[in-house]
């Protein structure tokens, strides 16, 4: 499955994005925040991500090693995306697949990732 452009956002629509992502490479992470939020994540280079609404309005949350900058809507509380770096140091966006417009989650088969041990 190749990269495809998707749009999405938080529950209230305050934060919106467009991203080119490959849904065959999604993960579910068992770290403390992903587990509690039920995140399904897809990663893309920052050049393939664009915030289309609410730029500068997101609240940021950092924890543990402070390497992922979790972005959430101050209005509805939903984390639609986050920012960080890939293992090679390239800047990336992590998209919460559950926030993609009209996504059929039955077609997404994420791979478990052991973030709790890192």
Automatic annotation (TrEMBL):
This is Aldehyde-activating protein. Pfam families: GFA. Residues 6-114 form the CENP-V/GFA domain. Keywords: Metal-binding, Zinc. Gene3D superfamilies: 2.170.150.70. The keyword Metal-binding applies. GO terms for molecular function: carbon-sulfur lyase activity; metal ion binding. Belongs to the Gfa family.
């Amino acid at each position: 499955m190749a990269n495809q452009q998707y749009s999405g956002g938080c529950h209230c629509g305050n934060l919106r994005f467009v991203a080119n992502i490959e849904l065959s490479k999604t993960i579910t992470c068992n770290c403390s925040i992903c587990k509690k939020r039920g995140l399904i994540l897809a990663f893309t280079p920052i050049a393939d991500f664009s915030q289309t609404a609410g730029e500068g309005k997101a609240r940021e949350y950092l924890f543990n090693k402070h390497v992922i900058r979790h972005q959430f809507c101050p209005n509805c509380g939903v984390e639609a995306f986050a920012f960080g770096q890939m293992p090679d140091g390239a800047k990336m966006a992590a998209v919460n697949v559950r926030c993609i417009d009209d996504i059929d989650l039955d077609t997404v088969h994420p791979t478990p990732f052991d973030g709790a041990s890192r």
